[in-house]
Write a structure and sequence with these properties.
Strand content: under 5%
Largest sheet: none
Distance between the termini: 20 Å
Number of helices: 5
Order of helices and strands: HHHHH
Shape: elongated
Number of strands: 0
C-alpha cells in the first residue's frame, strides 16, 4: 500500500460542510414543513486504499500480496467500528490464513 496520509478539515471547512449538511436537510424537509418523526441517522465511513505500484507490480516485484494488506486494514476498521475483536469478525475457516499474514491483528508479533 502507499504511505499513510491523513487529511483534516480546518475550522472554516468544517463550518462550510456543516452549513451544506443543514442546507440539504432544510431542502429535504421543505424548510421544516415535513416532520422527520421516523428518521434515523446513518454515518458513512469512507476508506480508500491506494498503491504506490500497480497491484501486479506489488505482487511480483515486492513479493507482497496487496489483498492481504487491504484485508488487514478493513479488519482493523471493522473491529474498531463494531467494538469486536478480529477473531469474532473472521469466518472460522479463514482464521488460520488471516492470523498467518496479519498476526498483529490477533495481538501477536
Amino acid at each position: 500500500l502507499a504511505s499513510e496520509r491523513t487529511e483534516a478539515l480546518l475550522a472554516e471547512e468544517q463550518s462550510r460542510e456543516k452549513r451544506r449538511a443543514f442546507d440539504l436537510l432544510d431542502s429535504l424537509t421543505k424548510a421544516g414543513a415535513l416532520d422527520l418523526d421516523h428518521a434515523s441517522l446513518h454515518v458513512l465511513v469512507a476508506l480508500v486504499h491506494t498503491f504506490e505500484k500497480s497491484v501486479l507490480d506489488t505482487l511480483v516485484q515486492d513479493n507482497v500480496n496487496p489483498i492481504e494488506r487491504v484485508e488487514a486494514s478493513l479488519l482493523t476498521l471493522a473491529s474498531t467500528l463494531h467494538a469486536q475483536p478480529v477473531a469474532r469478525l473472521v469466518a472460522p475457516g479463514q482464521a488460520v490464513r488471516v492470523r498467518h499474514h496479519s498476526p498483529a491483528l490477533w495481538g501477536e508479533l
